[in-house]
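Backbone geometry tokens:
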Amino acid sequence: MADIEKGKRQSSSPAASADVIPVPTSTGHRINASGHVDQLPRQYGLLSICATALVIDNAWVVMGGSVVVSIANGGAPGLLYELLTACVYYGMIGLCLAELASAIPAAGGVYHWASVTPGPRYGRVVGFFAGHIGYWGWLFGWSSLIFIPANMIIQMWAMYHPDFVQEPWHLYVIFLLLTWFCVACVIWCNRFMPFLQTLGLWIVVVGGPVTIIVLAAMPEKHASHAFVWKDFQNVTGWSNGAAFLVGVLNGAYAIGTPDSVTHMAEELPHPRRDLPKAIFAQLLLGSITSFCYAVALMYAITDLDAVVQSPGAFPLAVIYAQATGSRGGTFGLLFIVLVSITLCGIGGAITVGRNLWALAREDAVPFSGVLAQCNERLGCPVAATVANGIIGSAFGAISLGSKVAFNDLAGSFIILTTCSFLLFILPNALNRGRYVPPGPFSLGPRLGPVIHAVTSALIVFFTIVFCLPYALPVTSELMNYNCVIIPGLMLLTALWWFASARTRYRGPRAPWDDDSLDVVGKEEEI
């Protein structure tokens, strides 16, 4: 038999697919659940993939770095209760993701599942749009994430240089350096990633409690219980109810990465068993650590006006300064955030790179021939990872780190990714899971459709809410440009579909491509 062309789809004949997934072939290659030969090393175990999920999410660090998004939407109690609401919201989403990750583990993740759950008639086009929407969401999320450590570095410098005047180009240069540092780490250090992510887990796990202890112990005076839990301070111009709902965006941004490791499914020996565990570990520990950190952070505030009106792009340094009363203490706490969030940025670069690579393998994006290539020696889709670095750099040049730009990038990440989730969850609810083979983790024929329907309704509701202006009256600085960004991306995706992809795009392998649905539900224990 001729050698299988690497990176191309292998036809799923009964002889090749009736045993296991990944399927060993006569040439020694393995065909994974996406229908492609394995090109990435299956080097992640349960601990390292859980560590990767927690480092990519890094909920307590991201919540602190993005606190500006909702500190005005109710003050301390608003932030805390909005975070809890977001945790419940993403807990529902996580159940749906874990079920599909257990059934069909593929690097395409949501994109692959949205090609399956609508059925043979609509799966191809729905999956195409889900893939593009999810990719742009992750790219926006990764870019907004890099702004956090970039601002941390500037604030750490400014603490010891009182005469320093920040210019937009300062932030952009640091943003570029961090972006390409993440890209370089993903390309050249891939074989060390399981170890580095496990090490990063300990940094996150230790850094969180240390920060919480410092915030609890060092302030000479803490905020009152009423300030933290009761006094809803709304300065947005919205009614309190609307302000609360808009502020859920901050919590969603902190916890909203449950699909991150699903794009690494082809790098695990046992993805159907381990991916749901990694998703649950991320959501559970992320929710606990972020809420405990948020409580300690709110008790450390002594002047809320100074936090809201802080001149920097992020007010976290002001809160730390109020808590510690010293530059050294503030610098140390910011350094923990800097290291942790940089590790998060590296993980984000992995996810968004695998995402683009998975799309390119099916001719879903321009320049697919280049972007679909994978360097098997490095164990990384180099072209896709570099392309994301280039596009991310362009985003940084456009936004230059303004508060409006950060809010819009954070909002776009949440809106686009959850809309991509909707495109596989809603069809799964309507079809009552008929096209999804059972995996080790399943919601069942009775509970599953209920959870899918409720989750779909929540996504539609919060998508509308997160497109509302951040405050009233609406100005250019307070406008939520996602009402323009989202339709614009949908239009571009539709144009690419009709111009090229409608005839060239293949789509990932679906269960009905095999002899039976049970084939996809099997996995080799190696």
User: Anything to note?
Assistant: The two ends are 25 Å apart (CA to CA). The mean pLDDT is 85. The chain has 20 helices and four strands. The first helix runs from residue 14 to 17.
